[in-house]
Amino acid sequence: MRWLLLILVLLFLLIQYSLWFGESSLPGSWDLKRQVQAQKAENKQLEQRNKALKAEVLDLKEGKDAIEERARSELGMIKKGETFYQIIESDEKKP
Q1: Residue 73 sits in which domain range?
Q2: Which residue in 83, 52, 82, 57 sits closest to 70, CA to CA?
Q3: Nearest to residue 80, comparing CAs of 68, 95, 64, 92?
């Protein structure tokens, strides 16, 4: 009877060891779940960025408004008949 109890206790300890410290332990499982959640969040962010880039590419291919906007903002171009005003702020503060 005593041997049976000893064997059962040893088996229980062996199972507990593999549960807490083995290859597929609970802490390892929790860490993997955390990594999966972080990867899903990053994937969602990248997906949104890709959608925005895809919309911008499509707009550049098909629409003239985006090309005109870029020409105005990045190259400083203006249309015929428009007047360009540039406001330069001075570095000195007036008292």
Answers
A1: 54-80
A2: 57
A3: 68
61 falls within a domain: yes
Contact 59, 66 (CB under 8 A): yes
Local confidence pLDDT in tens for the 95 residues of the chain? 888 888 898 888 888 877 777 777 788 888 899 999 999 999 999 999 999 999 888 887 887 887 788 788 888 888 888 887 878 888 776 65
Say how far apart CA 26 and CA 49 lie, in whole Å: 35
The identity of residue 77, as a single letter, is: M
Residue 5 located in a structural domain: no
Q: How many domains does the chain have?
A: 1
Structure tokens at 68: 């005109």
* pTM for this prediction: 0.49
Cα 67 to Cα 72: distance, rounded to the nearest angstrom: 9
